[in-house]
Amino acid sequence: MKILEKIKKIKFKKLDWNAILMAIKNLGHLIVRMGAFFFLLFVFIFRKISGWLEKLPGVGAFWRLFQEKTKKISQPIGKKLAVLIDKIDLSLNREKTRRSFLIQLAYSNLMFKKSRTLMTILGMSIGIGAIVFLLSLGYGIERLVINQVATLEEMKIIDVSAGENTSLRLNRQIYDKIKEYKEVKEIIPIISVVGKLTYNKATTDIIVYSVPKKYFDFSRFKLIQGNYFTESGGVEQSQINPPDLEGKVAGVASKVEEGEYLAKIVEEPVSFNILPGEKVKVFAECRISSEMLGYTVRTPGGYQGSYLYGGSFYSEKPGPVIFDKKRNMYLGRWLKGYFPLHYLDINDNLVQDLGDGGRQVWKEGCIPERDLEIEAPLKLGKVLGEATESASLSEEATPSGSSAIAFETVSMATSSASGIEIVTIQATDSAKSKTQIIEFKSPVSGEAVVSSGLLNLLGISKDKARETEFDLSFVLVKNLMPEIEGKANTTEIAYKIIGVIEDDNSSYLYIPFTDLYNQSISNFSQIKVVLGKKEDVPKIRKEIETIGFKTSSVMDTVSQIESLFATIRLVLSLLGFVALAVASLGMFNTLTVSLLERIREIGGMKVMGVVAQEIEDLFLAEAMIMGIAGGFGGLVIGFLGGKLVSLIFSLIAFAKQGVFLNLTYIPPSLLAFIVLLSFSVGIITGIYPAQRAKRISALNALRYE
């Protein structure tokens, strides 16, 4: 308060603060007056419209029935509110006449010159109707275009890809990270490859999308024949995270090794170390779901510990599958030992975990093998499926975190060109010496959903498409399967068409997601992220882009469309306001002429005791009645005009394409805007005549000829 007083003395010595406070008080009274007028006018107009509806043949009976059902609630509430507003208004403005009575009197005065009043309201209706029609046309066409671009559900979808960053991979780890966001409702991985399709001894390249069944739930495809993938076809897409599996089993291998949970892989302790620059999580038990003790890092001299089987985990490194028959679960390889612990500070920097004595804390824990170098000879167990007698590790074929690989000898670590130590083993049967042909290690569904454009390319009739068979092989690249060099082809598999999508412009087909994913493909081409609300799209996109991935959404296109039509609506609004300005001049002229005709009447009213403020309110009420009546009339004219235009264009469109078009749309916000606009126009055009009527001397008014 003292600061405020000093400011007054320094900068505002000449201001009359009492006058300012009085102005603020008068402004508050004006707001109350206009608010009271606004509500009471609506009650009054509703009653008048209700009376007119009751007199209409046919409609009147239904309206009377509706009133009978609602009058016990609506009428008492309306009357109580009207009385309450009158009391508040009278107490604040100290007037003698209720505002509801002034509104009734103003309506009677307007009806005395009914023809002139109706012509004025019609002019206002045309002006406001022009605005309603043009804006509804802008909103309607925008809505039509957006509906052609995307549905409401598609506006909640984010497409995630690696973009031009070749160092990033969309894999299971990224999948799990995105899935943790609470705003995410569904996440759909997609693998896209080039397929070689053979039909009737002719071969063609085709785009193949390997997608989960739920992908079609969020797409706009129109299925014209058959069905999508079926569960009975072995393609239930929850297999991305199978039961009893903590992560995806990685690696391309045609063998399965037997293991036992927590059994040692080798009896002797092994020497190992953390990969340079890595910070590795240490778990209390040899499974991902156990408590995390902290982080550990590479140390000179390395570590020693037990090499054993634990729970499975995700790894990009290839390798055979290890399975525990007794527990019916997949296994991964872990190293158990004592590790120095660290934790992350708020800046994600590693900080040593110091105990009470100020020394580094060491604890026994488990580390997944995917982040380690093993520096000692190892011998592994028997192979259950078709396996080589011995195998070896290289940088491209390090042991998978979810499985073990059979081998007998391992050389000591050497350094790669990048300076990272790697384990090098001479393979007895190197993959590089074989042709890059990948055998399918898991059964495939053999079901495909194709586009109608592909049928046209193959010369297959849509009616005969179902159950048509063709042979299909896939071209796999290193981005999807890191263990291959360059490109690799799969063997041919017989597929049959179970569904046809209407799209004559493109040639492609869809197969179940597990058909490719179960063949040890560790990366995805794209991920679709479905959110619960479209308002969360910008936030989640920013989170994903922070990781380094590229995102896109149909909201980008929608935003551009909305920006374009916002400019169009502005231009249309300006055109409409020109018509409204002309109509407002006509209304102003009517009120001014009415004032001149009633000067003696005003004098008589003042002599009878009517105060000047009530005279002003009477003329304002007349102006606002015409304004609001013109607003309602404009809404009707604009709505009917829009529907007429829509009908004309719909007849043309139906004759050519068999569709109906709705070119206009009036959103609730536009309704509220038009009502407030008509009320405001009434006030603005009525201020001058009302002020003149207020200032007229009673004596001069009685002498006026």
The oligomeric state is single chain
- Major sheet attributes: 7 strands, mixed
Strand percentage lies at: 15-25%
How would you classify the helix and strand content by structural class?
Answer: alpha+beta
What's the count of strands? 27
Specify the helix fraction band. Answer: 40-55%
Computed over alpha carbons, the radius of gyration is 40 Å
The end-to-end span amounts to: 59 Å
- Total helical elements: 14
* Domains (count): 4
Low-confidence stretches: 232-254, 377-435
Basic shape: elongated
Average pLDDT taken over every residue? 76
Protein traits:
705 residues; alpha+beta; 14 helices; 27 strands
How would you describe this protein?
The chain has 705 residues and is of the alpha+beta class. It has four domains: 16-91; 95-155 and 553-705, no CATH class; 169-241 and 439-547, no CATH class; 256-432, no CATH class. The protein contains 14 helices and 27 strands. The strands form six sheets. Strands 6, 7, 10, 11, 12, 15 and 16 form a seven-stranded mixed β-sheet that branches. β11 and β12 (329-340) form a beta hairpin. α2 (17-55) packs antiparallel against α3 (59-93). The longest helix has 46 residues, at 612-657. It is elongated. The protein starts with a helix and ends with a helix.
